[in-house]
């Protein structure tokens, strides 16, 4: 079954949006297999966002994502990678449709509430960066 890495960013944690965001993915029918509140080290943040290293906003991105706790999650389900991306909305909240997480709660591209893996390869990489096997729960939904 497909898995993705989702992370409520420091702005979402500060604004008490963890419950709302978890609830959206639960209600959609996805399965939460791992979750933790954590503060990223600079090293972990730089590795996670390595593909943006050359971008002018890289320093700002790393300092924001390490500025306070994030809520790191692994979700499982059919097509969860692309469906979670559409539930999140466009990266820039100004362009994100109402009804999406960023469309409903975000204002700025740098503080856009949530991160989600954009492909199978990045999901695998990000899940293993943030979680070890013991932290991931394999179980079937009974309802
Ligand atoms: P995310 O999905 O976490 O992946 C990379 C992040 O870079 C992205 O969300 C945005 O929050 C951030 N980002 C993209 N463009 C800019 C920008 N122009 N200025 C600041 N941050 C940006």
Automatic annotation (TrEMBL):
Localization of this protein: Cytoplasm
Residues the record lists as binding ATP: 9, 57, 85, 91, 102, 112
Enzymatic reactions: a 2'-deoxyribonucleoside 5'-diphosphate + ATP = a 2'-deoxyribonucleoside 5'-triphosphate + ADP; dZDP + ATP = dZTP + ADP; a ribonucleoside 5'-diphosphate + ATP = a ribonucleoside 5'-triphosphate + ADP
Keyword list, A-Z: ATP-binding, Cytoplasm, Kinase, Magnesium, Metal-binding, Nucleotide metabolism, Nucleotide-binding, Phosphoprotein, Transferase
GO terms, biological process: CTP biosynthetic process; GTP biosynthetic process; UTP biosynthetic process
Self-association and partners: Homotetramer.
HAMAP family named among the record's database cross-references: NDP_kinase
Family of the protein in this entry: Belongs to the NDK family.
Designated name of the protein: Nucleoside diphosphate kinase
């Amino acid at each position: 079954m497909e898995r993705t890495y989702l992370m409520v960013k420091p702005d979402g944690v500060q604004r008490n949006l963890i419950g709302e965001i978890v609830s959206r993915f639960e209600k959609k029918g996805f399965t939460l297999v791992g979750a933790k509140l954590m503060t990223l080290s600079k090293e972990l943040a730089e590795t996670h966002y390595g593909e943006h290293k050359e971008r002018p906003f890289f320093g700002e991105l790393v300092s924001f994502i390490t500025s306070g706790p994030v809520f790191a999650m692994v979700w499982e389900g059919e097509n969860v990678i692309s469906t979670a991306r559409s539930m999140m909305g466009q990266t820039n909240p100004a362009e994100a449709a109402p009804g999406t997480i960023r469309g409903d709660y975000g204002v700025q591209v740098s503080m856009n509430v949530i991160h989600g893996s954009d492909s199978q390869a990045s999901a695998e990489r990000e899940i293993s960066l943030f979680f070890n096997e013991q932290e991931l729960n394999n179980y079937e939904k009974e309802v």
